[in-house]
Amino acid sequence: MIRNASAVWNGTGKEGTGHLTTQSTVLNKTQYSFNTRFADGVGTNPEELVAAAHAGCFTMKLSFVLNAAGFTATSIDTKCEITFLDGAITKSHLIVNATIPDISNEQFQACVKDAEANCPISKLLNTSISSEAVLA
């Protein structure tokens, strides 16, 4: 399977503008710029998209790990915080809240660590990855 997205940029790094389009067109010429990346401009930025990708990938992987362990989540809510420092992504931190019937906190934490280490986006990122997880 191959997925794709494209970026178009016009102008200088600081004054220029660009747009992003994904294969699915969920993003379709979505605006990004210096201000959306480094200030409070309207639009997206690469780090926000990495955070969305990591949160989504991890959450789905956690569901698979839970199923393999004999559990089905009622809900899994994951927030991903990407740290961008000195021109590099230096950390991805996953904050997980889940409702899963009949699972112990110890079993849940083990499943979280498995998903954290083994989701495809975690494997892709060359950075520190951490998580905190609360079982409701």
Any idea of the CATH topology of the largest domain?
GMP Synthetase, Chain A, domain 3
Summed over residues and divided by their number, the pLDDT gives a mean of 96
Q: Any idea of the CATH class of the largest domain?
A: Alpha Beta
Radius of gyration: 17 Å
Shape: elongated
Helix content: 25-40%
N-to-C SSE string, H for helix and E for strand: EEEHHEEHHE
Assembly classification: single chain
Distance linking N and C termini:
36 Å
Major sheet characteristics: 3 strands, antiparallel
| CATH superfamily membership of the largest domain | K homology (KH) domain
Write the CATH architecture name of the largest domain.
2-Layer Sandwich
* Tally of DSSP β-strands: 6
- Beta content comes to 25-35%
Descriptive report:
This protein has four helices and six strands, in the order βββααββααβ. The protein is of the alpha+beta class. The chain folds into two domains: 5-38, no CATH class; 46-135, GMP Synthetase, Chain A, domain 3 (2-Layer Sandwich). The strands form two sheets. The protein has a three-stranded antiparallel sheet with strand order 1-2-3. A three-stranded mixed sheet has the order 4-5-6, covered by helices on one side. α2 (46-68) packs across α3. The N and C termini lie far apart (36 Å). The mean pLDDT is 96.
